[in-house]
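User: My advisor asked me to double-check a structure prediction for 23S rRNA (Guanosine(2251)-2'-O)-methyltransferase RlmB before group meeting. I don't want to rely on an old file, so could you generate it fresh from this sequence?
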Amino acid sequence: MDVLYGVHPVAEALKAGRRRFDHVMVAAERHDDRLARLVADCKQAGVRVRQEPREHLTHLAGTAAHQGVVALVRPQEALAIEDLFTAPDPSQPRLLLALDGVEDPQNLGALLRVADGAGVDGVVLTERRAAPLSPVAVKASAGASEHLRIARVVNLVRALQELKGQNIWVIGLDERGTSDYDQFDFSGDCVLVLGREGAGLHDLVRRTCDHLLRIPMAGGVSSLNVSTAGAVVLYEAARQRRAAARQPSNARHGAAPESKKKQKGLGS
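Assistant: Sure, here is a fresh prediction for 23S rRNA (Guanosine(2251)-2'-O)-methyltransferase RlmB from the sequence you gave:
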């Protein structure tokens, strides 16, 4: 069983319907409308609810930040990279996010929350030397992780090459990039690759990218936190894709954008 804690993560897992709940425990000391709504939703979904002392919930969650709600649920179904080859809506271009060894569960959770908000179709995580999809990460995502298609891979370079084989452009974000992120056309099929805190992309991952983009910095600090950088670029991609969707179909399927006419250098 996995442990979920916090009102939002438990509520979103219930709403997403991807997890099988064993039961939900709520703090006997907490009485408010927000908790009452969650309990009512659990009962409507046929999920057992038990009252427990707050100390017991803290012991199960491993933290006092559980907000008086802890759920025991079945693990999420593991996805393979092949499961991300197609978008939920086949008529729309694919937008994926790949994380190259993000180690902080708070950053992972924040990125998953951004990915859900920006309309990302799937997320690729590495199995080793990276933060797991732990209760801390799920809590940091405010439950957004429950709505995302997430694939775990052993070898990120191989996974990116497989995505290339599906005509998906691999776009790395790196402070050594040669183009600004807002000058790139994100309206087609692409996967954005973000690197480790501090160290950035691994060399092999960087060389696998079709394009390397940067976020220009006007101050004395050379880069942003990975979750902030991801938010900046993913919402630019979402903006462009909304604008493209408003165009007539003949305009959307016209000549290839300039960024995609360039040679696929950088390791391709």
